[in-house]
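Aggregate trends can hide what the representation actually does to any particular protein. In the encoding step, the backbone of a single protein was reduced to a row of integers, each denoting a local shape. The record that follows shows the chain in one-letter code together with its fold in token form.

***
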Amino acid sequence: MNKTASLALRSLLGSLLVLVSLLAAGCGGSDGKLAPVKGTVTLDGEPLAEARVEFDPDPGEVVRGKSTGSASYGKTDSSGRYTLQYTHEKQGALVGKHTVRITTRGMTVDPDGKEVLVPERLPPKYHLNSELTAEVKPGSNTFDFPLSLESSSGGQQ
């Protein structure tokens, strides 16, 4: 093997080693700190259907100079119940403190097949300027959010 081919092979093997290390770190990451999360969202005492629930890890939760991970999401059913997903394959949310955001804004398809914007029904204190928090602990977690259109900050955990 000539010197150029040997150098190219070393460079390729080194790059592959770095790539495999990064993938292993990214895949294993914080998934080991997931815990199941479910609950119910109500609005003025009635189940809130089709709301998006997001648990966003507290930015103060930093491990080795990096954010602790991604947000988890869920959507409420007709009874206002939700279950969080961390990824398509993994349920739950990262253990730790979270800002919780709940929104009804989204997109849907009308009978003619056109995308239509679903307007926001909730005040910004539940999504853009969320006052909702939750601390996910190891084991099963249930967080119910009794929201209100009144001026109180109901639902804060």
Remarks:
- The helical segments are 3-28.
- The longest helix spans residues 3-28.
- The chain has one helix and 15 strands.
